[in-house]
Amino acid sequence: MMFSCLFGVGYVIVRYRKNMVLKRLNATPVKAIEFLAAQITSRLWIVIAISGSVFAGCDFIFDFYMLGSFWNLLLVAVLGAMSLISLGLLLSSRSRSEELTGGLLNLVT
């Protein structure tokens, strides 16, 4: 689940750059920070929702015992997702082609 943050954000930014979507966004009132915040927020919500549903489904099916706090688990999940999102943004901001980005993301993984 967490590596979808890395690949999801990394490929999207490079594909947008390659298809000139980022240049077209300059003509709109959307600022660059708003675009990046939307990318980060959407990916974070998707990963947390999917990870939570997988955790709840496994708890329902396997009925395991949770040691520790659910809040600590949520905190670790959010911090892990944010770190991989930022790593994906870093790699995608420096590379121009999808092939190079794919290789770099696989190398990091």
From TrEMBL:
It is found in: Membrane. It is a multi-pass membrane protein. Residues 2-108 form the ABC-2 type transporter transmembrane domain. Keywords: Membrane, Transmembrane, Transmembrane helix. The chain crosses the membrane at residues 44-65, 71-91. Its main location: membrane. Pfam families: ABC2_membrane. InterPro entries: ABC-2_transporter (IPR052902), ABC2_TM (IPR013525). PANTHER family: DOXORUBICIN RESISTANCE ABC TRANSPORTER PERMEASE PROTEIN DRRC-RELATED, TRANSPORT PERMEASE PROTEIN. This is ABC transporter permease. It comes from Psychrosphaera algicola.
